[in-house]
Amino acid sequence: MLKQFLCLALCASALTACNPAADTKAADEGVTAFHQAMDAGRYGEIYDGSSADLKGTISRHNFVQLLGGLHDRLGSFQAGATTNWRDNSTTGGHFVVLDRSAKFERGPATENFIFRMNGSKAALAGYHVNSNLLVTK
After folding, report:
1. How high does pLDDT run on average in the chain?
2. CA of 61: how far to CAs of 67, 90, 92, 116, 125, in Å?
3. Domain range for 112
4. Average pLDDT of 79-96?
């Protein structure tokens, strides 16, 4: 009986750990803040607010250079929409992944945002962008 109760309690706590609607809303707000900061040239601010996951893969200096180069090639962000999302809790943490179509000043791109969730807060853990503009200009 105790084993069944513990199993039920663990399952219930796992289900309450994720709130997909709230989690994706927090991640969407993170995307908006990312694009506003990127268009304003505040690349270091994006890095400073990111999770240790991102900081463990790239230095601040290289991140700032990377985003500056991306912004130079793509131009200002115009519009975007989430095409797919995932809300995952694993032993490594709780993550929300957003795949997005995006329109920049100079053309289209696809973006992939990974956010580490800490309660209701979303911290950027990864950013990937794909556009022909990155290889043709």
Report:
1. 89
2. 10, 31, 27, 22, 17
3. 20-136
4. 94
What is the domain-level CATH number for residue 44? 3.10.450
The answer to whether residue 5 is domain-embedded is no
Give the tokens for residue 125.
């853990």
Q: Establish if 13 belongs to a structural domain.
A: no
Interhelix angle 60-74/20-39, rounded to 10 degrees, is 80
Residue 120, Cβ neighbours under 10 Å: how many?
10
Q: What is the pTM of this model?
A: 0.85
In a domain, 15, yes or no: no
Domain count, the chain: 1
